[in-house]
Write a structure and sequence with these properties.
By secondary structure, the chain is α+β, with helices and mostly antiparallel strands. The chain is 27% helix and 38% strand. The chain has 2 domains: 88 residues, no CATH class; 249 residues.
């Protein structure tokens, strides 16, 4: 009798565990959203459920709107919902690999990335940067300005930035290794540093395959990764304080990094990197930094190269007892041969709605 009871308990537990792994129903998800509005701390649980359990329904515009309103327009929650929707639409591509297959894809991505960085072409590209701001956590972005920058890359000089225009008006600033001499939030390193830090030995990056996804019709494996503070030698966040009409005092602190990387399952190339800074000192003015960079194949002189096409960066800072966010949405346009003149077109300075990340 005891054996039968034990067997019954084992079977009951197994059935319960299996039930917990069933995909989220639409009713479950909507109930979670309403609970989230009362307790924002449940966001991590909802994202975990979307990524681990998936969904059994099609995401409609109505559900997207409800997610935005009940989730305070949270980008990570919206992305997790879209990832689950793509897996639901293409179950075959969503199948998880064996540990060996995942390790093989990651190792090939390491080799391919380092080889590509060594063979980076010399080029010029135009960056169209839309900068906006909001109160932290609201997602209500107010446009600030539009910046156009010419970026050149060469093996000899690395990345060189030249600000061309601010809100359509020409700007006279010296070319340099970054554009931090421009007032407001600035970024850099999207071409080489963002990828090289993942695989350099000193980073001691820890990877774990966690899910699957599809980007621009390419099946991907998604790996979570972490670079500890002590191993992120070139990483960190900074804050600029005006010290004159055209001068700034720049203060920075080191930081670690935690994020996700999307790797094409077919050719083992990185298509997206999304991360947030970690271990920022609590008394530093910048309290948080997150970035998502999308890579795609672009043509330069009749050859194809995998380079950034979109970058979305957000900075959270404390000012006057309140928390604010600054956002830089960067579009990379018209990759050309090194030495080609970068021209400003009418479309570059025309205000436009927020650019959606490519799926």
């Amino acid at each position: 009798m005891k054996k039968l009871s034990f067997l019954f308990l084992v079977l009951f537990w197994a059935q319960g565990a299996f039930a917990q792994e069933k995909p989220l129903t639409q009713a479950e998800y909507v109930k979670m959203l309403y609970a989230l509005q009362k307790d924002p701390g449940q966001k991590a649980e909802i994202i975990q459920a979307l990524r681990k359990r998936g969904i059994d329904f099609v995401v409609t515009d109505g559900l997207r709107g409800l997610t935005s309103s009940k989730g305070a327009n949270d980008e990570e929650l919206k992305h997790a919902l879209e990832e689950a929707n793509r897996r639901h639409a293409n179950p075959e591509a969503a199948k998880m690999p064996t540990p060996k297959d995942a390790a093989d894809v990651l190792e090939k991505a390491r080799a391919n990335t380092l080889a590509a960085l060594e063979d980076m072409p010399d080029f010029v590209v135009k960056q169209i940067i839309t900068r906006s701001a909001s109160y932290a956590g609201t997602g209500n972005w107010k446009p600030l300005d539009n910046v156009i920058i010419a970026v050149s890359y060469s093996t000899e000089k690395g990345e060189q930035y030249k600000v061309l225009a601010l809100n359509g008006a020409p700007v006279e600033l010296e070319k340099g290794g970054d554009y931090s001499n421009l007032p407001g939030s600035t970024t850099g390193g999207e071409f080489v540093e963002a990828l090289s830090k993942l695989f350099r030995p000193a980073s001691k990056t820890r990877f774990e395959v966690v899910t699957t996804d599809t980007i621009r019709d390419r099946a991907c494996l998604v790996f979570e990764y972490e670079i500890l503070l002590e191993n992120n030698k070139n990483g960190g966040v900074g804050f600029k304080t005006p010290s004159g009409p055209k001068d700034f005092t720049f203060t920075s602190v080191p930081a670690g990094e935690r994020g996700r990387v999307w790797i094409d399952r077919k050719d083992s190339r990185i298509l997206r990197v999304s991360f947030q800074a970690t271990d920022i000192p609590k008394d530093f003015q910048v309290r948080a930094y997150e970035s998502t960079i999308d890579y795609d194949w672009v043509a330069i002189a009749d050859e194809k190269f995998l380079l950034p096409v979109l970058s979305d960066d957000k900075f959270t800072s404390a000012e006057g007892g309140k928390m604010f966010q600054a956002r830089n949405l960067i579009r990379f346009k018209n990759y050309q041969r090194y030495g080609t003149e970068v021209k400003i077109l009418d479309d570059d300075v025309r205000p436009e709605p927020e650019t959606k990340k490519p799926n």
